[in-house]
């Protein structure tokens, strides 16, 4: 029996307006496939076992809960930075 926890991967989609949603989730071979597809498409990756454990409890299509907004915002900011992008800040009326 291995003491290592199985690999988990969760993909999020963020449209810049609504809370991010879970678009893919899996562990083991499925996690490896999620990671392979992300790399193939140039999607930035971030390794965070604790966040992955929390996000893996959500259903596909489910928005992340408000409790995770800050940490997921940091991940999104990280993805923008390593992609060389600058987020568009929309003014509220």
Architecture overview:
The chain is of the alpha+beta class and 93 residues long. It has a single domain (8-83), classed as name from scop, CATH 3.40.1690. Helix content is 37%, strand content 14%. Strands 1-2 form a two-stranded antiparallel ribbon. The longest helix is centred in the last third of the chain and has 15 residues, at 69-83. The model has no long low-confidence stretch (mean pLDDT 89).
What is the number of beta strands?
A: 2
CATH class: Alpha Beta
| Superfamily (CATH H level) name | secretion proteins EscU
SS content category? alpha+beta
Apparent shape: globular
Tell me, rounded to a whole number, the average pLDDT.
Answer: 89
Low-pLDDT regions? none
Q: For the record, give the distance between the C-alpha atoms at the N and C termini, rounded to a whole number.
A: 57 Å
Strand line-up of the largest beta sheet:
1-2
H and E string: EEHHH
Kindly give the count of domains: 1
The CATH architecture is: 3-Layer(aba) Sandwich
């Amino acid at each position: 029996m291995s003491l290592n926890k199985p690999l988990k991967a969760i993909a999020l989609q963020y449209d810049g307006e609504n809370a991010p949603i879970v678009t893919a989730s899996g562990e083991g071979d499925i996690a490896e496939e999620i990671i392979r597809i992300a790399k193939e498409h140039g999607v930035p990756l971030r390794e965070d076992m604790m966040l992955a454990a929390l996000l893996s409890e959500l259903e596909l299509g489910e928005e992340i809960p408000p409790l995770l907004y800050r940490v997921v915002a940091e991940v999104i900011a990280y993805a923008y930075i390593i992609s060389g992008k600058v987020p568009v800040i929309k003014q509220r009326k």
